[in-house]
Write a structure and sequence with these properties.
This protein has 601 residues and is of the alpha+beta class. It has helices at 4-19, 49-58, 62-74, 97-111, 117-137, 146-161, 165-178, 208-226, 229-242, 275-278, 286-301, 314-317, 324-338, 354-357; strands spanning 34-35, 40-41, 303-304, 307-308, 360-364, 369-374, 377-382, 398-404, 408-412, 440-445, 448-451, 459-464, 469-476, 491-499, 502-509, 519-525, 532-536, 539-543, 547-553, 558-559, 568-570, 575-583, 589-598. The protein folds into two domains: 4-354, Glycosyltransferase (Alpha/alpha barrel), CATH 1.50.10.10; 359-598, Beta-galactosidase, Chain A, domain 5. The protein is globular, with a radius of gyration of 24 Å.
Length: 601
Amino acid sequence: MAEIYSELLEIWCESLLKLQVKETKMNGLHGGIMCPSCSRIHGRASDAIYPFLYMAHIHNNEKYLDAAISLFDWSKHISRPDGSWICETSSDWKGITVFGAIQLGEALKYHGVILDHQTYSSWINRLRSAAEYLYHNIKMSTGNINYPITCSCAMALAGEVLDEPRYTLKAHELAHNALKYFTANGLVFGEGSPQTGITKRGCRPVDLGYNVEETLPGLVQYSLLTRDDEVLQTVIEGLKQHLEFMLPDGAWDNSWGTRSFKWSYWGSRTSDGCQAGYALLKDHDPVFAEAALRNAILLKKCTHEGILYGGPHYQSRGYLPCIHHTLFHAKAFASVLDHKAQTTDDAANRVAIPREKAVGVREYKEINTWLVSKGEWKATVTAYDWEYMKESHASGGAISLLWHDKAGCLIAGSLTEYQMEEENNMQLPIDTRHMCITPRLEFRHAGEYYRSINDIDAVVTFTQNEDEINFFVKGKLVDKDHKNPETGEVGFEMEYVFSPDSLKIFISVLPGNNTRDIFYHLPVISEHLELVKHTSEQCFTVYKDNCQVVVEANTVLAVQGGEEKERIFNLVPGFEAVPLFIRLPSDGNAKLQLKVEMGEN
């Protein structure tokens, strides 16, 4: 793994090269990069100019130089007279000019020397046009917060490459305004509308994926370019705080984020990756290098046939990969290599990440979410009430993520109902078993689902002692509009008991509601290649590589579909799961337990 950054960059660029349109000479097609999943050329395909030029320069390879020039020429198709680029030919969103300017600026700064005079001049002029657009049009209120904050990097880079002090001043203004967008816990807010909004519970619009893969890396690069120590110190602390949400396998726990509809387990669908933040500051804290490396290793595991897939089980489930992920991560890896920020996985240099060392509960009031660590169990419980859209991330005191040190990720909160909020940036489900994989209570009445995870008013409390951590949840089963069924309120209580050897879930539907067909769904992450056995009427065992996950209930435990081989899937975050469920007994009370036992499959 010592060369993982250069290795993956070369693998990805080779695949991008194969997908570039070469034979067809028509403008608008020639030089573009086709997407296998979406069967078209995405507007942001031109972000590959930078990694192509890197490969051409570092490896003295003419084919990559030709590819970069052809792709630049293709990008005129999505250019506009005001200096902007649009996101897609079907979209007039111009905010992505921020990222187009960054990649073109880095390409020119580090590798422009290999371009002939005419080409270099053309690219410089295009960067100047983009910079002028950004200078006049991007404000702190523009879009979600990732745009104006990352624009500080675009302006600083343009100021250096074009030798234009106005741009550098604009960068300083944006970056210092960004300091107002950090919570007391060091989380960046503003991923929602309004950016500075506060819910009735005091929550802010926060999205982990965009923060660690665009916003914070943008501030890191701004700080390094301008030697701005004030911003640098704030962003270093922000990187540390966000790192609390990294899982031991290098994944990012964005099961609760406002824009979790783009959560891809390793990050977010159309952002650049955490490496452009953490790896670039590796000398400030060894855990930064560790985080960047772990995430890179996970990206490698999710790369098949040279293309990065949108989640761990996409490829085995039969989905084609969207090219967005490869485009953007190739760009970020080129930046890491140009900054000489790569690291090795020498065992002597490896360190633990925060979630491996955490003990007990850490509360984040700004997102009404709790991180739990007990023994080998790591979990996330959330009652976050910021709604970017209806039925997106879980609320209601749900366990939105469960990790075990030996079994890996066992629970991951998907979208409650899959919606293509960003149609050009999300994939269409192709199978009939595309379902919610968040644990939840639910029932159906008059064609509507009433679910515990829809309740943004649920009350969550906890206690902890040496032996166990107890979470108590009290809420209602409500529809997507947070309304009770016409027959009256359906209240529930749940308790989660985390101990070193198990997770116990106690469920109670309050008196007066026991005649309803209420189910508790507990989808357990398991690829269809894994063996699952119905070992008794009330017990299932899922066989992992070196352990077994045992799920027991005090009532009949079943699989939706009826067969042990059944799996459901959700594109967010890209996992298959065994769809376990129970029907609540007539008294409205039930108990489930998860344990992990050692042993070979």
